[in-house]
Give the backbone structure.
Amino acid sequence: MLGVLRWIGVTMLFVSCQAAYRPVVIMHGMNNNVHGYQKNVVAIQAKYPGIYVTSLNVYNDASSMLTHMDKQIAAVAQAIRADPNLKHGFNFYGESQGALLARAYVTLYNDPPVYNLVGLNGPQAGVGECPSVEVPVIKQLCADIGTDLQIYRWPFCSFCSYWRGKGHASYLRNSQWLADVNNQRSVNQTRRQNMMALNQYMVTVASQDKTVQPKESAWHTFWYWGDDQRKRVMPYNQTQDYVDDVLGLQTLDKRGDLLLNSFDGGHCGYQMDWWNSTVLPMFDNQL
């Protein structure tokens, strides 16, 4: 009997000492919702049995387009901190606007901390043309006014929070959110350290993206300032933000932990075979 009890005790100790897979948080994109990523959840749970996966139930559907990003990121942080399963850290996956929100969470909060960050087709460096969206009000406004109007201060518009017009000085003067989040006005060292604390950061471009423009914004770069025709995109490692390492991207890159990739397709139009081989391994880590 004593031997049996000893065996049970050793077995329980072994099980309790086994590390659990680090949780995964998913942040939906613009005009999507908490239920839009079931195929990804299924793939993660099939690959890593017992893993905790949650999709954030914040600003779903049209509200994700009609709400300023400062309110959305506050809701993201609140939802994460309210979940006891995330208190020891997690991997964060976001698509489209959700990729920017996931990265902004790391930059602005990172408590509890993110281990691996994956941003798919996110407007990390902003957008300079109105997105191809099917919300009638936004679509008609963009069609009517064109892209030359400075729309930084539109009150009910999420992408206006990360708008970048054609003038650098005007952008820095008028940006209501992105310029601060990207450390472009002044360098907040805490925000920079938050990014450098990541284990790895993967950013993905869609080759035929017509929603995030330029598509290379997902790689933290943009059209050259002064290129009014907007045909030339600066190499990511030649931007002033990278050279000055204002977000720690150069540090991550030199460590080998800034992972840039792409897939052939439209905005978030990846094949699951690609996703399973490229993205899924980012969640293979334990607490």
